[in-house]
Amino acid sequence: MAEAGVLRPDARVELLDGEIIDMSPVGSFHGGVTNYLNEIFTAASKRRWVTAVQNPVRLDDHSEPQPDLVLLKPSPDFYRRQHPQPADVYLLIEVSDSSLTTDREAKLPAYGRAGIAEVWIVNLIDQAVEVYRKPHFTGYGSKTILRAATKRHRKLSRTSPWMLPSC
To answer: 109: which residues sit within 8 A by CB, 6+ positions away?
Structure first.
């Protein structure tokens, strides 16, 4: 659409359910958390998956969101010919602060409808990770909230992605 002059080439937008949605600007904390997750998952991959940062995922003809981080099945061309589709996704991560409502209420149901097996929302506001599994038409059948250890809660919550190839 930028090539046709409908959108500015530098417009930060994504397509969701046929609507063009303005994307929130990426603040330094949001960007730093995304960089940190990218570093961790890339180092752990050992070429078993491709780590994509803020690149489109084609859910269907009407939705092509740009999640913060996606762990993808390896592709010989690194997805140069076409954007990854739901079957290519091991794990999709949204880092959320000002975008939390949109990520939960608009994007999460779209990911579920498309069959994305696992979505993590890294909730910067509440300092938690929301883990969604068991996709279905209206969203996800399983939700787990993980929190960092505090003085009150000494044990750190942990998880690992379900779909990743084993180490």
So the answer is: 138, 139
